Predict the structure.
Amino acid sequence: MSAPRSPQPPVVAPNRGLQGTRVTTRTTCRICGSDRLTLLVDYGDMPLAGGFLTRDELAYQTAFPLRLARCAECTLMQILDVVPPADIFTQYSYVSSTTRTLIDHFAEMGREIVAAERAAGRLVVEFGCNDGILVRPMRDAGARVVGVDPSDVALRASVEGGWPLVQAYFDQTTAARVKAEHGPARIVTGNNVFAHVDDLHAIVRGVTTLLEEDGVFIFEVQYQGDLLALVQYDTVYHEHTCYHSLTALARLLDGHGLRIVDVKRIPIHAGSIRVTAARANTPRRPAPVVAEMLEAERAWKVDRFGEQVEARRQSLRHLVTDLRVAGRRVVGYGAAGRSTILLNFCGLGPDLVEYVLDMSPLRSGKYVPGVSIPIVPPEAFHANPPDYAIMTAWNYEPEVVRKEQAFLSGGGRFIVPLPEVRIVGAV
């Protein structure tokens, strides 16, 4: 194995998207700097997964190359084609609190980490706080909270919820600002943020700047092990630059004087991990599960992942096409980033999928980019139920099935696309 190298800047590739946008192509790993990047899946040109469109915007659609690779040195899975964050997040419409599963998950997490770290009355900072879904329960548990997030979603939520927000991307400069205004943090947390960041080292430098000497960094990421096991090709998009293993995270944190002291498998987002890290000189000893997970990751096999993706892609495409030929009505259930990639990658346009239902009023009335399928509110789905609904939000299957018992009892069926294509009807 070659010696690790410092991360190198990406190579600029020709612009292929928004006017003025410079799409860049990574040739080295975001964590270790190795150039040993193995291509796993080439998606072709894909739209921005969260870029839901108004009717007027349909004539001005854009797409960008999307390729998934894996580092042979540190095992980080990552996309090679990078769109500037300003083009992705300026009109970011994702709101965490529209899903009961997430509300319950972060309510429990907030109570748990404040109690475990004795953070009542102490400063807790969450970067990527979105609409405050975790900030609120941490505040309710007695912590002094500050959110950091560049989006207007976060700004509106902070004003309405009465909690302080620094509207900025989290890095060393922002961390120093928060520390100067509020003091050092007992806990720094950021959940599902590492996936969205091209410069992971900037985030960790911010964490080390802000933490108390005996503070902890607690964060959640989608777990590469579950992505591989469940063949989650639909979670790969430009907004998600990285897909983490514990091995890769340990490499990243070690380089900044932090070490992993605990890790927990959690089911959220179809498989994630919650990692606790502290300064390397901490008296805390790593929990046994850390070494156990690192050892288990050495046995992973990734050589057939691309083949598995293609098999599931073709299976879904053939099923939906056959249903439409038979005269069945088919819609989508859930307009999130996963749905954009799944529908575009599988070639499921408005000739096959009538509309996509979504609970968020921020998306209702818009269109899924690329395939230009309209997004409708739940009322449209319930007023005239289709024959089949592709559960594009399949990672929330138990919640969706509980919520839509009337649809199933009336003869409707869900098509669950992953980890294997299957049909779910009334029990």
Observations:
- The chain has two domains: 96-282, 305-424.
- The longest helix spans residues 305-325.
- Residues 96-282 form a domain with the Rossmann fold fold (CATH 3.40.50.150).
- The first strand starts at residue 11 and ends at 12.
